[in-house]
Amino acid sequence: MKFNLKTSYIVAIVVVLIVLLLFGGRMFFIVEAGERGIIFRPYTSGLDTENVYGEGFHVIAPWNELYIYNVREQQREETMDVLDKNGLSINTDITVRFNPTFNSIGHLHQQFGNNYINVLVIPEVRSTVRQVAGRYTAEEIYSTKRAEVEQTIKDETRRILGENYIEMKALLIRSINLPDQIKGAIESKLQQEQEALAYEFRLQREESEAERRRIEAEGIANYNQIISESLTDRILKQRGIDATTSLAESANSKVVVIGSGKDGLPLILGGN
Q: Which keywords does this chain's UniProt record carry (predicted)?
């Protein structure tokens, strides 16, 4: 009895060791930092899209399979040719930064698989860039509405990828390259527009200065008219008398002749 029990233990240990040797690589998993895992149960419920395995050590049945996804922020750069509103070819360099939505790895795997970057992300980015560029002219894309074009591409790409379990962090248009002839024409036109704006500004400044001087002159003329209308003969005589009185009271020697001046005002003779 004891011999049989001991033998059973030994057999069980041997069986466990064999299982571990044969299936250990399919049973024990470590999900690294920046990764998430999902499990596929081929003989029962299939792909578990709801439960996502986080970082750390995990044990699964050897007949199941664990798919591990990198959920760190990733970057892809694309160079592509697009057509503007008038059919002109424009070469653009695009950079997109993104990561899978952590809790939606199961749905992402179910619809697009491990190759989701080439199946989903890059095609959608390229398609959106082409669609948005087709709404604008080359001049608008290159200069006048470049910020608007970039923002539209970002908004539409973020919406489409978000609906497919991808979180877009940023989308950058690194460069927009036009044929030299078209680029030169656009730059020449922009330079002429800036010169015209500068000339218009100078005209407006001169007109403002002329208006200021006109208003100032009108003010001086009105002031002189008011003063002229307010000065009567009596007021002038009174001011002459006041001035004469002030001079007569000064310390300098003089001779004052009363009533001998024009209009009967006093005359002051002599004095230093």
A: Membrane
